[in-house]
Amino acid sequence: MSSERENFVGLSSALLGIDRKRLAPTIDPIDLPSQFLAYIRPRLTESLLNDLLSQYASLFNDQKKEQKEIAQILLMNGDAPATTQGAKACRSIMKMWLLGVWYQPYDAGPYKEKQQSVVSDLAYQQSWAWRVAQAHPMGYSQFHFGYWSETPPSLEAFTGVPAKGQQGASS
């Protein structure tokens, strides 16, 4: 049986198309998955979060669905985007990983739809949009001085996702 954190990482991996080992590396002093789970629990409500994680676990472990199929089931209603609270929550989870910002998908207690909040300074610094853009937030970089004069690593080196046929990506 998978833990709640493992299911959250798996759900996030399916939604983003980024390998779970990149979202939650073995050695991870920041531990964004645990921070994100704690942050979204009251904002989604305990019952909806549990339902989403259970649905992911069932699709992945019991039904042996591929990650892409899981994302399709959670996000789409046929050819149109699903409008359920679960689908809205999944989209907000994606935005949180990509931007480090939580976009409240619906009213839940004191949290009102369309409210936005930065999860934490580390969530913003470590957000995946920077990796996808092969960039870093202003005022923060893990690269060495003068890195801008060198050819950047491939997009795959940043995200683990091959950049085959994409213009602008060094792959």
Main attributes?
2 domains; two-stranded antiparallel ribbon; 9 helices; 171 residues; mainly alpha; disordered C terminus; 50% helix
Helix percent reads 40-55%
Q: Number of helical runs?
A: 9
| Strand portion | 5-15%
Quote the distance from N terminus to C terminus.
38 Å
Main sheet: strand order: 1-2
Describe the sheet with the most strands. 2 strands, antiparallel
Total strand segments: 4
Task: Please explain how this structure is put together.
The chain has 171 residues and is mainly α. The chain has helices at residues 4-16, 20-23, 32-44, 46-62, 67-75, 85-99, 121-125, 128-132, 155-159; strands at residues 76-77, 80-81, 101-103, 116-118. The protein has 2 domains: 4-132, no CATH class; 135-171, no CATH class. It contains 9 helices and 4 strands, in the order H-H-H-H-H-E-E-H-E-E-H-H-H. Strands 1-2 form a two-stranded antiparallel ribbon. A hairpin with a 2-residue loop joins strand 1 and strand 2 (80-81). Helix 1 crosses helix 4 (46-62), helix 1 crosses helix 5 and helix 3 crosses helix 4 (46-62). It starts with a helix and ends in a 12-residue tail after the last helix.
